[in-house]
Design goal:
Order of helices and strands: EEEEHHEHEEEHEEH
CATH architecture of the largest domain: Beta Barrel
CATH topology of the largest domain: OB fold (Dihydrolipoamide Acetyltransferase, E2P)
Radius of gyration: 25 Å
Mean pLDDT: 77
Low-confidence stretches: 245-276
Number of domains: 2
Number of strands: 10
Length: 276
């Protein structure tokens, strides 16, 4: 790439095979790209290696920054070819990562959506003082709280039948890819705690309510999957699905997944003896 200086920290690399990549970079097999290293490179001309990279510059070609370099092994190369296309492999890797990071993975149904109570109180107080025009800040998330009725817990522990999930209802470009919930929506939810999601923490705390924050958040579209969609979260939780949702392959074409009724609330009261 002509815009990249040639020195001891760069190299032109012929891509033999793409293992994981977004769609934009999935078709570079057989092409030359520029790789920049964090330190002086130790590769020799003609040497093969596996590169873990992030995108850097895009133009007539592409330049990437190497995060890690490993020697190529026959087993690793064969495993990459057996796992399907690069875009699908990347999506599956991201899904597994989100599943591992989730505090709770559940199947359930949205039973209500409301505005956080302290936001309602603040707006009511301002309106009572004097009529004001609410100024919409840039990328205002316009938070809502969805109440999710739990059908089954697939990961984590939960001692009740519902949880509250905060999500941005705004259609602003910053929140375009986040799930937007409405009553009656059913599916699989990968629920996160704000403190456990460092990459999304700043966004999730933007103009967040102080008291009524909700118990969990779903920062990314991948965190929710409707029952009607095959694969995805369904495959990751397959061992816990027996007797819950009829597998897609076993259903009649065009019919929605069959979901059993909500769990009955258990009582913790100790039975008392009847007096005679």
């Amino acid at each position: 790439m002509s815009d990249v200086p040639i020195d001891d920290t760069t190299a032109v690399v012929r891509v033999v095979e793409v293992i994981h990549a977004p769609e934009l970079l999935a078709h570079y097999a057989g092409q030359d790209i520029t790789v920049r290293f964090t330190a002086r490179k130790r590769l020799k001309e003609g040497q093969q290696a596996m590169f873990y990279t992030n995108g850097w510059l895009f133009g007539e070609s592409v330049a990437v920054e190497a995060l890690e370099i490993e020697p190529v092994t026959a087993s690793a190369s064969r495993a990459g070819r057996d796992m399907g296309d690069p875009v699908g492999r990347l999506a599956q890797r991201d899904l597994r990562s989100r599943f591992a990071d989730a505090k709770l993975v559940v199947s359930g149904r949205v039973i209500s959506v409301r505005m956080p109570s302290d936001v309602v109180a603040a707006r009511s107080a301002r309106a009572a003082e004097r009529p004001v025009v609410r100024r919409i800040s840039e990328h205002d998330p316009d938070w809502r709280i969805a109440e999710i009725q739990i059908e089954k817990v697939h990961k984590g522990k939960l001692q009740k039948d519902s949880v509250s999930v905060r999500f941005p209802s705004s259609e602003d470009v910053m929140w375009y890819g986040t799930p937007k919930f409405h009553p009656g929506q059913e599916g699989f939810f990968m629920l996160h705690k704000v403190d456990d999601a460092p990459e999304e923490r700043a966004a999730m705390e933007r103009a967040a309510p102080v008291r009524d924050k909700g118990e969990f958040v779903v920062p990314r579209a991948i965190d929710f999957q409707p029952f009607s969609e095959p694969g995805g979260i369904r495959e990751l939780i397959a061992p816990t699905m027996r007797g819950f949702v009829t597998p897609i392959a076993e259903q009649e074409p065009g019919t929605p997944p069959r979901v059993p009724p909500a769990r009955k609330r258990s009582s913790s009261a100790t039975p008392q003896k009847r007096r005679r």
